[in-house]
Amino acid sequence: MRRCSRCRRRPKRRWPRAERSGEYAGLRRTPSAEARRPGMKRREFWLLIAPSLLIMFGFLAVPVYRTIVWSFQQVTYGSPGTFVGFDNYTSALTDPRFLEAVWFTVLLTAAAVVVILLFGYVLANMINRLKRARPVVLGIMLIAYVIPHVVGATAFSWLFDTNFGGVANLIVSQLTGEEVLWFTDVWPNRLVILLNVVWSMLPFAMLMILAGLQGVPEESLEAAQIDGAGPLSLHWHVILPTIRGVMVFVSLVLVMDILRVMDNLIPLSPQATSIGNESIMLYVFHIAFTEGNPQLGLGSAINVLTIILILLALWPFIRGILKEARNG
């Protein structure tokens, strides 16, 4: 039987394959821009980070390595060191002066961190309510943070020095009727040092907490107020949990900086060695550079012990940050 023309199968039209088409073939053979992008980003990343790595290696890794090596040697200026094993560590850990410096530094750090966090949070909330006056207030407060510590501590000491007016000393003397020896008595001098550390580090904490407060969602605050939360409950249950990461970061930086405090004590505590208000770094400076026979090996051993102390003090904060990042 012959099929009609309508029933006949039409031949399938053969379309050119992508390989045979010049336009498609070019796209198939040439790597796409998206495929090349990761390699370019990786090269750019290493080119940008290489100078920082070299600087960190030169100014951090090499000095730490030399410090560890010298901590096992008896080192004098101009001559190679002599290996003495753990004698420097034994001398440091059995020296009552070093243990007293550790106790003073840890006590100062704990008190200063608590006071700075408390007042920094209060000031940040007050400044967060300002509008036009906020830049002016921030600029005035940041002066104490940006000036060198020695300069700030020297100017701060004039508040308690009768030779330079001593406004704070005059007020305290009028209220108590007694003359306070701020630079020679143990606890008055510790109070002066604590106030100076708080004064110099408070602007940093306040600025960081202020940045965290500006990231608190307005919806959360409004919902808490609708539910009947008072001011204390609002801060404790809403604001503080929201800026917990910022508070941990500020605490970490404060602990690192205050454990290494030294230059503040030079104008504020001229009798630090005799009255027991010597920090760890000031103790290292004295025994390694200024007192009699410089002991670079002993000073290096104390620096290594200080690094271990700082890592132990920072471990709770670092663990909290890692746990928060893992949960996030």
Question: What is this structure's SSE topology?
Answer:
Elements (H helix, E strand, L loop, with lengths): L21 H8 L3 H38 L2 E2 L7 E2 L3 H7 L2 H33 L5 H8 L1 H4 L2 H9 L9 H10 L9 H28 L4 H9 L4 H12 L1 H16 L5 H4 L3 H4 L4 H11 L5 H32 L1
Antiparallel strand pairs: 1-2
Describe this structure as you would to a colleague.
The chain is mainly α and 328 residues long. The protein has 2 domains: 63-94 and 295-327, no CATH class; 96-278, MetI-like (MetI-like fold), CATH 1.10.3720.10. The chain has helices at residues 22-29, 33-70, 87-93, 96-128, 134-141, 143-146, 149-157, 167-176, 186-213, 218-226, 231-242, 244-259, 265-268, 272-275, 280-290, 296-327; strands at residues 73-74, 82-83. It has a two-stranded antiparallel sheet. A hairpin with a 7-residue loop joins β1 and β2. α4 packs parallel to α9, α9 (186-213) runs antiparallel to α12 and α12 (244-259) runs antiparallel to α16. It is globular and about 70 Å long. The termini are far apart.
Uncertain regions spanning at least 5 consecutive residues: 18-29
Within the largest sheet, what's the order of strands? 1-2
Please give the largest β-sheet: 2 strands, antiparallel
Q: Tell me the span between the first and last alpha carbons.
A: 76 Å
- Helix tally equals 16
Oligomeric state: single chain
Count of domain modules: 2
Helix-strand pattern: HHEEHHHHHHHHHHHHHH
- CATH architectural group of the largest domain: Orthogonal Bundle
Helix-strand makeup class: mainly alpha
- Share of helix, binned: over 70%
CATH hierarchy, class of the largest domain: Mainly Alpha
Choose one word for the global shape. globular
Report the CATH topology name of the largest domain.
MetI-like fold
Fraction in beta strands: under 5%
CATH homology group of the largest domain: MetI-like
Number of strands: 2
